[in-house]
Design a protein that fits this description.
CATH topology: Endonuclease III, domain 1
Shape: globular
Cofactor: [4Fe-4S] cluster
Distance between the termini: 25 Å
CATH class: Mainly Alpha
Organism: Lentinula lateritia
Mean pLDDT: 74
Largest sheet: none
CATH superfamily: Hypothetical protein, domain 2
Number of helices: 7
Domain HhH-GPD: 25-111
Oligomer: single chain
CATH architecture: Orthogonal Bundle
Strand content: under 5%
Keywords: DNA damage, DNA repair, Glycosidase, Hydrolase, Iron, Iron-sulfur, Metal-binding
Structural class: mainly alpha
Low-confidence stretches: 109-136
Number of strands: 0
Biased composition (Basic and acidic residues): 114-126
């Protein structure tokens, strides 16, 4: 799976933001779709929209054209809408806290997934995770 990379504590804020974008896209693309089916779509997506800013600047037609064949087109339009919010309101970074619950409807993340993340889960180091895709 191309989005699986080892955790790197040495990433700077920009690199962590990029990593969060990659993980977020993979989470949305794989919803209700088999992983083997998703891999070529994910790779094509990241080639066309390598950053959240690139996605935010695209059109819905461009996004839907790339999504063609995956179904559930609302996921693609939600990714685009959320990317535009992230660029406009969060300097191109994904938010990392519960204050951003209003984005749940936009990001395509399921209610159960969001509730689990917002409650906070322990990561491997025993630290409490407090947000969606964490960027500090």
């Amino acid at each position: 799976m191309p989005w699986r990379k080892p955790h790197d504590v040495n990433l700077d804020m920009k690199e962590r933001a990029q990593r969060a974008y990659e993980v977020w896209v993979s989470e949305v693309v794989v919803q209700q779709t088999q992983v083997a089916t998703v891999i070529p779509y994910y790779n094509a997506w990241m080639k066309k929209f390598p950053t959240v800013a690139d996605l935010a600047e695209s059109s819905l037609d461009e996004v839907n054209a790339l999504w063609k064949g995956l179904g559930y087109y609302s996921r693609a339009s939600c990714l685009l809408a959320a990317a535009q919010i992230f660029v406009r309101d969060y300097q191109g970074r994904l938010p990392n806290n519960a204050k951003c619950q209003r984005l749940v409807l936009v990001t395509g993340v399921t209610r159960r997934h969001t509730q689990e993340n917002l409650r906070g889960r322990n990561d491997k180091r025993g630290k409490q995770s407090s947000g969606l895709n964490q960027v500090e």
